[in-house]
Structure formats: structure tokens, C-alpha cells
Amino acid sequence: MPSTTVIILDEYPPPTPELLDALRLMDAELVPRTLGELLRGPLEVLPVADVLLAPAEADGESIRSAVRRLRRWAGAPIVVVWTVTEFAALQHHVRLGHDYLVPPFLPALVGARLHSCSERAGLGRTLREADARAELMGYEKELEIGREIQAGFLPESLPVPTGWEIDVRFRPARQVAGDFYDVFEMSRGRRLAVVVADVCDKGVGAALFMALIRSLLRHTAENSGLQHLMAAGRTGGSRRTPVVGATPLLNAVTATNGYLTRNHLRQGYFATLFFGVLDPLTGSLVYINGGHNPPLLLSGSGDVPVPLDVTGPAVGVLPDCVYTLGYAQLNPGDTLFVFTDGVPEARCSDGTFLGDERMLELLGGPPASGKDVVDRIDLAVREHTGSAEQHDDVTMLALHRPRAARGPHADRMAAA
Amino acid sequence: MPLSVTLSIEGDTTVIELEGELDAKTAPDFHQTIEKAAGHGTSTVEIRMAGVGYMASAGLRSLVFAQQKVADHVTIKVVGAIEPVSRTIRTAGLDRSIQLSDD
């Protein structure tokens, strides 16, 4: 590839034979262009040139405009104006900042001048790229700050009740994530809230809504007490006695849905979420699944995993919708595995998904621990994705009740 | 994989035909078409999705977005979605506001 690209401006007079010979002898690509093409032609066909060679008779202002246009496109060439007799016109160009060539047009002299111009043009392009990179680094720094702030919306440490194990894996696909998880105490420490959620779409928008939805859920759950914000939504458990923790759970999800649909419906952001409330003493779980991939209840005795199906729509989509409560029981040896769609929808480079079936295969057999489950699935996701780009956030949470757990209630449940 | 989006009007129905994958990268094209479709003012917007092999949550957001863009009396139908795609729509509960049909 020639080291120098020269645009020969197609203006009268054309380069003298000596000048043309000198140009041909140097290692240069010569590209003839008219001023009209440079000023008004499609940008895509304009060459990335080091030098724009023009006769002194050409209009200096028009050349300047052409150079400005080239600069925005791919970097500015150095203008070199030549003449044999028109020194007054040449002087005008030099005042505009253009370089010049005058006879004799000996190959070594012309070559040396154009190579030095080529280096200056290259330096200009490098500076331009450096500017662009600096701007990009500015954005990246902002995004990094966003990532750090978002990390503050995830629990710093997990309050793990005696006799339980909680393991979490959280791998965002980008710097900021739409997925989140949360674990916190409710009802004065008598209940444990476990949340895994996936805000639709990706990037900064999803991350902002993640912060909002997490805050609304946690704040309402922690502060709603026993008072119903809304009386509906108990159709699923009409014969059950009210469960401690069920009210803050219903209030949290219903109020968050209400807030989002009242204030943010137009933006179209919503979250699918699983919100479970555990009684650590008995292992009973009351939950709402708002349009989320059903978490799997893995039996310690090796029974087929039980999906905890949806009990209402995604949060933030439908105003005034009803969420019902679901109930489950975690016995010693059992594990509740909650995850986001980044797990079954992990893709390898040819586009194949990990898939629900493969997940169920991997989860066959009684889990030794929650960590074992998370590790097994995470390894499968990584192996499946391989060198392909990670498309979606991957979040997993395993709530495990070890067999060895000691305590009056644990013993009673194990016996029953 | 890219998404091809075509827009046409058949009587009182605006038809959006999608082919490819509906995810965070391709959803913006679909959003633009939805905005155009909303301007047509037909009583039904039919989204033909038989050619959509995969829909991520960004695609679900597009459907919610569509719902917000059209007038209240306009019906949005999703037609011909393959099982994994229609399951994604049903799991999120969007089938409560959007009609899902096979053809």
C-alpha cells in the first residue's frame, strides 16, 4: 500500500510534466478529484488523503471549504499549492496556511516535501482519534460510576438465618444491569424476604428502573406493617389462615405495580420478579411470581423439581391487576433455585440456547448444597456461552435448607 | 441476527410483519414502526410474528410500548408467534392486554 495518498485537484492548469513525473516516482497513490466532488459529492467515496495538490490559480477559499469537509469525514489532508509563474496567487494560498511547491520539480525534492506533509496529516489524524478516544473514555468513566452506584442497590451482605444457606451469582452482561436480587429481614426478623427480578430491556434505562423498583419493593415491604394497602388478591388461599409476611409481600408488589403504572407506563419499562417470604423456623414460603421464569423447588429426596408458577403479571404493565399468593414448603435437604432468563437463554456462538430441558437435566438428583446448584448451573452457562458475547444478565439465587440443621422446628419438620 | 420489519395496511388493520430476532439490538427498529403504525389510526394493529425465532425482554417492552402508543380503543393482536415466543408473552402476563392468536 502506498505510504502517501495525494488528491490531484482537477483544476486548470494541470500539473506540469516534470511535477507529474516526480509524483509518479514517489510511492504515492494519485487520486484525481474536482472541487465540486470534494465540496458536494457523497462522503463515502472521498479518499482518506494525506495531501491535496492544487495549482496556485485554484480558489483558496473553496479549497479551505473542501478541506473542512474532508476533516469531518476522515481527517484533513495538507494542501500543497504549486506554481511556475503565479507567485502572487501562491502567496495568497500560503497566507491561508497552505504549503507550496515551486520549480525545479526534482523527484527527491517533491518526494521529500510530500512525505513530510504526509507525516503531518497522519499526526492530525492521530490527534483526532485521540480526541475521540478521550471522549469515549469520558463516557466509560460515567458508566463506571453508574456501575458503582448500582452496586449500592444490591445488598451489601445477606442476612442468612440460622439453619439456612443462601448463595447468589450475579453476572451483568454490561456495566450496568437490569437484573437484581435482594435479601432482607421482614416482620421484625421473623421472616426473610428473597427477591430476584429482571427489568426488561438493557443498559442505562433498565438500570435506572432497577434502582426504582428495588427501592419501592424493599421500602414498602419493610414499612407496610400488617395494614393492608389493598384488600384484594387473596383468592388463591381463601381457606388458609393469614400468614405473617403475606401482607407486606402483597403490599410491596401491588404498591410497586401501582406506582409504576401510574407514573411510568409510557416508558414501557417493567420487571418480572419473584418475591418470596420465608418463615425460617418452619420452612414455609409464601410468594408472588410476577411474570417471572418459574423458580424451581428442588427436592432433597430427589423428586422432580417443582416450578413455582406465575401468580400475576409482570410488575409495571397492567394498572389495578391482582396478584395472588403462592405457597411452598422447603423441607430439610430442599433448595429453592431462583434465576433470570439469562440462564436458560444463554447462547453459544451459533445462537443455540442452553434451554429449559438442559437446565432440568443439570438439576437432576438431590442438591448437596445451594452453592453446588449455583456452581453447576453457572459452569454450564459459561461453558455453553463459550467465546460468544454474553447477551443477558445472569442472576441466580439458591435458598437451601441443609439436612444437618438443628433446632426444635427443624427437627419437627424433618420428622413430619 | 437482524430483524426485518414491514408495515402495510389491510382495510382497517395495520399489519406489522416481523422476521428475525426481537432483542435489545433490534427492538428500536420495531419501536419506530410502531410509532408510524399508531399514526395510521386503524382500529386494529396486527403484529405477525411467525418469523420471529426469539424474543428477549426488550421485545416484550416493545409490546408494552405499542400498547401505550395506540389509542385506547385500538386492539393489538400478536399473530402466529411460535411457542417459546408466545410463552414469553404469556409468562409476563402481556396476554391480558394483547390478543394472542395462531393465525
UniProtKB/TrEMBL annotation, chain A:
User: Which Pfam families does this entry report, sorted A to Z?
Assistant: SpoIIE
Give the UniProt keywords, A-Z: Hydrolase
Upper lineage is:
Bacteria, Bacillati, Actinomycetota, Actinomycetes, Kitasatosporales
- For this entry, the protein name equals PPM-type phosphatase domain-containing protein
The PPM-type phosphatase domain extends over: 161-401
Organism of origin is Streptomyces cirratus
* Highest taxon of the lineage: Bacteria
Keyword ATP-binding belongs to the record? no
From TrEMBL, chain B:
A Pfam family of the record is: STAS
- Domain of life of the native organism: Bacteria
- Which SUPFAM superfamilies does UniProt cross-reference here? SpoIIaa-like (SSF52091)
Domain named STAS: residues: 3-103
Q: Which family does it belong to?
A: Belongs to the anti-sigma-factor antagonist family.
Q: What is this protein called?
A: Anti-sigma factor antagonist
